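User: Earlier you gave me the apo prediction for this protein. Now I'd like the version with zinc ion bound, so I can compare the two side by side. Same sequence as before, with the ligand SMILES added.
Assistant: Got it. Here's the input I'm using:
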Amino acid sequence: MQEAGRWGFAVRWRARLPGGCEVCGTWTQAGLCGPCGTRFAPRVDRCRRCALPLPEGLQTCTECLQEPPAFERSLCVADYGFPWQRLIARFKYGRTPELAALLATALLAAAARDDAPPPEAFVALPLSPRRLAERGYDQAWELARALGREAGLPAHARVLERRFDAPAQARSSRAQRMRNLQGAFAVAAGERLRVEGRHLALVDDVMTTGASAREAARVLREAGAARVDLWIVARTPAPAAPAAPA
Ligand SMILES: [Zn+2]
Ligand SMILES: [Zn+2]
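And here is the structure of the complex with zinc ion:
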């Protein structure tokens, strides 16, 4: 499966040893068979700022109109549901970082269909050192690195530092969540030149409330980034939906 990108590179579904499609088990060389790739990443009208599904014809959701996030655009593959939920869970907790290439390719295919200008580099939304120690690898960094490799763009591992995790936030208001996150991210010493004047894509696997992404993007803009976009594999459709595992 191959899609011509607008960006001067073709999005190639990485050839690997033939095996079952991750979703339906059909024999494929791409990890995800053609029909599953099309069926499970349908075109949906979304808020250009935060990727929330919107009725046809609308470009920005009410929340983003009232309080625009520091990121300019959000690109995603699909809503957080079957089969992405399962693939992301395996990617995150199943110690299968090799799924990063598949998820990155799906994200690049979605980006190549969009009219957003390409970023200059990818930056991961980092885990805290404590979470990283628990899990053993940082899924957002694995994804950012795979995106960089597939798109031929730099991916920066250490631009953003995460100082702490915010407490569980499912029931707090957005204002509370944002307060809890103040100071959670910082641009690392010595990394400012990779931020100043740059158009960066902040990468994460799932966006639920978007509070962390908002705060991280704010910190990047404050450090001089010309533009920050948000690239996520899956978007939790509505605030009422069950929260994604952090
Ligand atoms: Zn399939
Ligand atoms: Zn929005």
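For your comparison, keep in mind: Confidence is low (pLDDT under 50) at residues 1-5, 240-246.
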